[in-house]
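Attaching the record inline, Q. Sequence:
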Amino acid sequence: MSVEVNGFLVAAHELKAPLCLMRQLTLALALAPDPATQSRLQRQLVEVSDRALREVEDLTKISRLEDGLFDLEPVSVRGVCDEVMRELAPLFGFSQKTLGLSYHNKSRLAVANRDLLRSIVYNFCVNALRYSENGTCSQLSISDHTDKIRIGVRDFGPALPTRIWRELQSGRLATPASIAMRPGSSGLGLFIASEFAYYMHSKIGAVRHRDGTSFFVDLPVSQQMSLI
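Structure, as predicted:
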């Protein structure tokens, strides 16, 4: 089986997973014994469907990158992270988890596409939401890293396989890859982040810890004024 075909199969499998989960939630909702249970299942349905739609939209964007439709410009990295934080904070709370946010960057603007960068940060944070244990506090951070701006997300999920980690060190994943310890859309999300970062002349990477992984993207610093 070719690498390309295997990548398509991984993407198809990981996009199938939320559809199956939505079916199960719908069936459970029909049998829910009380309003509180119904409300909880409805929130889960919305969350799962939103994630699936985002993944499909991001895959569509990948196919259009070569069309030059995604302009690079000065982008406020803090503004992008704040936006993702506001969207995901309620979901972390609902899952009995926490997402912290810390800024240590003096350089405020990066050369990027706002929509693509937002998708990268969102994918990193969703991985932390999905794979960290209840009661843990994942961390979204921005820092200066040599001549780049680094946006990183520290999660407490299962270990990242050595093969995937080494491929990330090169700055780009060749195809979507299944990650046995991180079922769902971890491999697909990392592939999407890799493609978006490559288009923006940036680099993603990962640091493995005993109790999780830190995923990051390094962005070129912009000296121009942001219009966003």
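The longest strand covers residues 137-145. The first helix runs from residue 3 to 30.

More tomorrow.
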